[in-house]
């Protein structure tokens, strides 16, 4: 399976994603609590990460900022963005980058289907 990095500012969501995606679907999961930690971790481990799933609204760096920093490290990054609330301009800019956008709350099966769709496109 794939290695997926999940980025969110809510610990409970990260715990749930890590447990569900690794146990139910067999993915290797890397979690990062907040945007700054995500960028730091991505810089160290980007070669082993197939996909990043980002929360859009976080207190330190928002999803757009995190994605832009990660894209400097790996121009071929693939990402899915999730948010309960996201201003239209931010949503549109992420979609222009080619990111898939999912509205929170997201059913785990729907999220996994989107992960698999992106992974198929990647090759």
Report on this structure.
- This protein is α/β, with parallel strands linked by helices and 123 residues long.
- Helices cover 48% and strands 21% of the residues.
- The chain has one domain: Rossmann fold (3-Layer(aba) Sandwich), CATH 3.40.50.
- Strands 2-1-3-4-5 form a five-stranded parallel β-sheet, sandwiched between helices.
- The radius of gyration is 13 Å and the shape is globular.
- The chain starts with a strand and ends with a helix.
- The model has no long low-confidence stretch (mean pLDDT 93).
Strand adjacency order, main sheet: 2-1-3-4-5
- Helix count? 5
In terms of quaternary structure, the protein is: single chain
How many runs of DSSP E, i.e. beta strands?
Answer: 5
Tell me, what's the shape?
globular
Portion in helices:
40-55%
| Structural class by sheet pairing and helices | alpha/beta
Termini separation comes to 13 Å
What would a concise description of this structure say?
With 123 residues, the chain is of the alpha/beta class. Helices cover 48% and strands 21% of the residues.
């Amino acid at each position: 399976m794939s290695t997926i990095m999940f980025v969110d500012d809510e610990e409970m969501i990260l715990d749930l994603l890590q447990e569900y995606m690794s146990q139910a679907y067999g993915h290797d999961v890397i979690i990062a609590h907040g945007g700054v930690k995500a960028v730091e971790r991505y810089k160290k481990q980007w070669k082993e990460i197939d996909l990043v799933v980002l929360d859009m609204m976080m207190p330190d760096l928002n999803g757009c900022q995190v994605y832009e920093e990660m894209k400097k490290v790996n121009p071929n990054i693939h990402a899915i963005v999730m948010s309960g609330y996201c201003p239209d301009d931010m949503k549109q800019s992420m979609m222009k980058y080619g990111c898939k956008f999912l509205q929170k709350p997201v059913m785990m099966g729907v999220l996994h289907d989107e992960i698999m769709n992106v992974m198929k496109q990647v090759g």
